[in-house]
Amino acid sequence: MPSILRHRSIVLTQILIICILLMQSCRQDSESADRSEGAGEATPVKVVTTTGMIADLVRSIGGDAVSVRSLMGVGVDPHLYKPTRDDITEILDSQIVFFNGHHLEGRMGEILERAGEDRPTIAIAESVPTDDLLFPDGADHHPDPHLWLSPRLWGMCSKSILDELIEIRPESAETFRTNHRKLLTECREMESYGREAIGTIPQESRLLITSHDAFSYFGRAFDIEVRAIQGISTESEAGLSDLEALVTLVVTRDVRAVFIESSVPRRSIEALIEGAAAKGHDVVIGGELYSDSMGPAGTPEGTWTGMVMHDIRTVTSGLGGSLPSGPDAGTDAAQ
To answer: Does CATH number 3.40.50.1980 belong to domain 199-318?
Structure first.
């Protein structure tokens, strides 16, 4: 059965790629006509991104000069996401595509590669120097792709967006640079606030346990130990021995709270809690974190800065720390 499912997935991907090629051919004349009719008009640059976090970066830098469409909605797991026909249409209508890279969008790789034949497709996380990346055990030498959970690294990723937008719309270069400087200031302030907040957690309680290994950069940025049930991709499965090892860790370290994620089923965390209870140790869910997806649009967590601030506050409160005054610090933490 697994081999049949894999075969179907490969066939569907090939069909989608054929659609890309056919639709590209059909659109060449109409695109040429559109350029002639729209000459001299400062229409927004059409941008497609894979994740909401990247879309928010593009909007922060591009402002009114960009029109951004994110393919993956709220709560969508990018590790498992399969592109649709509508996604292909969006990509073909775009002038540039930004994606994360480092195998985050593993099931979109071939489509993104083909789309790159006719427009820039930029893997923003792959612009970060290797020395700044983390390479988890068991990841087949691939770096951890979750760079957006480190404000410093996400600021580094934003430089590739700035450069590409200036290339496409040079007359707006100064506006883009101003917006980018503001973004980098926010990144520095957030990193400083996060270190101060996480630093209030008692040292013996400074252990963050989540569903999958998305928070290693977060842990390095804010000086907190991180453990997870699954690996860096939600496609990986946690074995019984992995779960038992974490149960033992929870009991021996007297961990009182563990955390679920908005885009990952909570069953593995619930199994961890049940395992600890079987050994006479009570542990609760300390809150829900945003890992691979932002919150709903129109909420603070529906922006990249809001989601990371939410995670900082939720971890701090859930593990017994206290929230210092700072950007958005008055927003409720764990619900």
So the answer is: yes
Give the residue among 76, 128, 63, 72 at the shortest CA–CA distance from 97: 72
Task: Report d(CA 143, CA 326) in Å as an integer.
Answer: 32
Kind of pairing between the strands at 207-212 and 225-230? parallel
Distance of CA 131 to the CA centre of its chain: 20
| Domain chopping of the chain, boundaries | 2-192, 199-318
Report the alpha-carbon distance of residue 294 to residue 115 in Å, rounded: 26
297 alpha carbon, distance to own chain's centre:
15
pLDDT of amino acid 313: 98
Pairing of strands 45-49, 96-99: parallel
Model's pTM, two decimal places? 0.86
Q: Spell out, as residue ranges, where the chain has pLDDT lower than 70.
A: 1-41, 139, 234-239, 328-335
State which fold the 2-192 domain adopts: Rossmann fold (3.40.50)
| DSSP structure class, residue 176 | H
